């Protein structure tokens, strides 16, 4: 519901602008009331907790939430682009303005802890965590089970958002899964100030605990808008966190089975995943495509942007879409990696998502997958109202197939994979001859193709312990083999954290 994103009188109190703190990680997030203030206000007005939670959701798409004025600093989808580029599946094919080129595609930020783009994901995810801690404490604390139904649902959402942020921190700040390696400071209370690094195992245990609690608290929650985390989304986040540990496959399969079997979402059809223009003239009057509307039945989690959301050029659409007012329309072309494109079968409808120009491998832009609804080149408005997708049910099918294949349950794996591929290609009989590692590899490939540009390639690269080999339409490191745990693909603890947290003195 669009009205949930609008700033209410309550939200205006919560989003009071103040000057920047001298400390890197704010002890009291400046966008939100303190825990004590929220608790006191909630005594007279229970909507305060809901308003504070709505503020956290808005951080997911607001610009500057990584603490900078950079035009790639705009919340979750900004770091989805980082991951897609680091994985190699999204190529920066033409760079006129310089966004992403040196720091991300040339790996300077992951190798230099003083860079702002090394700082941004750390700042963003810990900002979400600290803000969630305020809501959780105000709702009764980590062990609470509120008597009021609305407060139970708020607590469940806050715990899921906190776990989601910790999960992404583990992905971006640890080279490869090692439960014994100290990787991150841990905070589960708004009273926490600074902390030493704890092991990945402790962080993952906490993520799992938070999400299991969230799943229980969200029982019966009928959300009013898809930007809110419901029980299915919490299960999806938990499935990703368990899959990243690579020895919890049965639990991954069970969770994804549960989401799929709800019947609440349907796999996007061919007409929904590809825009088609069958006319022979120059007028763009085709049909199809469902990646600009949160109303797509295949979307599990996303945000409904409106003119009131205040989103413009500094956004995912402003960086990725030729048909929005965007850098992608004026010379910073983001394209599918040419090597990955070559692996898409000729009869696969998803090949039609990308501009094909025989004269240049640069032109593999996603003109027919992601586009502003009016399809006016370079945008008809500087205000973005195309929606943002965070999770869709196809991910659950692919994770289910991956889990089953890793468990040796080949028939189940093929069934889940076929549920998608039967809608994308003419003949899936080739799957019959696949088993073991070959089947796992095929599921990994189809995950990269189906979810291209949606921020999931980096997670899949690490889960599958893959190797990046960039195709010819990248501007740098073409043909260089870079393994998933290479230092160039993982960020360091930022300089600011080392300066202001006395318990951390080194990046590693």
TrEMBL record:
Keywords: Cell outer membrane, Membrane, Signal. Residues 360-466 form the RagB/SusD domain. Its main location: membrane. It holds the Pfam family SusD-like_3. Residues 114-220 form the SusD-like N-terminal domain. Signal peptide: none annotated. It is found in: Cell outer membrane. Belongs to the SusD family. This is RagB/SusD family nutrient uptake outer membrane protein.
């Amino acid at each position: 519901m669009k009205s949930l994103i609008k700033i209410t009188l309550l939200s205006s109190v919560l989003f009071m602008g103040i000057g920047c703190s001298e400390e890197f990680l704010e002890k009291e997030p400046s966008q939100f009331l303190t825990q004590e203030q929220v608790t006191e206000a909630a005594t007279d007005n229970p909507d305060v907790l809901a308003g504070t939670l709505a503020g956290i959701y808005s951080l997911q798409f607001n610009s500057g939430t990584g603490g900078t004025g950079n035009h790639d600093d705009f919340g979750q989808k900004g770091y989805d682009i980082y991951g897609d580029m680091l994985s190699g599946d999204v190529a920066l094919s033409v760079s006129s303005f310089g966004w992403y080129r040196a720091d991300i595609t040339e790996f300077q930020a992951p190798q230099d802890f003083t860079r702002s783009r090394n700082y941004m994901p750390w700042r963003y995810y810990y900002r979400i965590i600290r803000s969630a801690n305020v809501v959780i404490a105000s709702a009764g604390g980590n062990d609470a089970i509120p008597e009021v139904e609305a407060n139970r649902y708020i607590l469940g959402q806050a715990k899921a958002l906190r776990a989601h942020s910790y999960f992404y921190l583990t992905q971006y700040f640890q080279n490869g899964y090692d439960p014994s390696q100290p990787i991150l400071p841990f905070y589960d209370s708004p009273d926490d100030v600074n902390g030493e690094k704890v092991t990945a195992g402790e962080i993952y245990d906490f993520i799992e605990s938070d999400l299991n609690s969230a799943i229980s608290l969200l029982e019966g929650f009928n959300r009013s808008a898809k930007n809110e985390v419901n029980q299915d989304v919490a299960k999806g986040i938990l499935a990703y966190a368990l899959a990243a540990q690579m020895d919890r496959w049965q639990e991954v399969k069970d969770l994804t089975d549960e989401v799929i079997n709800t019947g609440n979402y349907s796999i996007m059809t061919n007409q929904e995943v590809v825009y088609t223009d069958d006319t022979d003239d120059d007028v763009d009057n085709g049909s199809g495509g469902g990646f600009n509307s949160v109303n797509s039945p295949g979307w599990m989690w996303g945000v409904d942007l409106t003119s009131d959301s205040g989103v413009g050029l500094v956004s995912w659409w402003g960086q990725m879409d030729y048909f929005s007012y965007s850098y992608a329309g004026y010379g910073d072309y983001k394209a599918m990696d040419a090597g990955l494109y070559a692996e898409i079968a000729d009869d696969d409808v998803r090949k039609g998502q990308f501009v094909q120009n025989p004269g240049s491998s640069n032109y593999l832009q996603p003109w027919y997958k992601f586009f502003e609804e009016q399809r006016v080149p370079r945008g008809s408005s500087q205000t973005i109202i195309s929606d943002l997708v965070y999770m869709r049910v196809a991910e659950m099918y692919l994770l289910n197939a991956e889990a089953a294949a890793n468990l040796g349950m080949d028939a189940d794996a093929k069934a889940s994979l076929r549920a998608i591929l039967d809608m994308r290609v003419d003949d899936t009989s080739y799957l019959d001859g696949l088993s073991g590692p070959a089947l796992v590899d095929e599921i990994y490939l189809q995950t990269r193709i189906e979810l291209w540009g949606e921020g999931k390639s980096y997670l899949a690269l690490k889960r599958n312990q893959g190797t990046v080999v960039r195709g010819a339409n990248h501007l740098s490191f073409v043909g260089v083999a870079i393994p998933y745990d290479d230092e160039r693909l993982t960020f360091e603890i930022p300089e600011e954290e080392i300066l202001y947290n006395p318990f951390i003195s080194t990046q590693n």
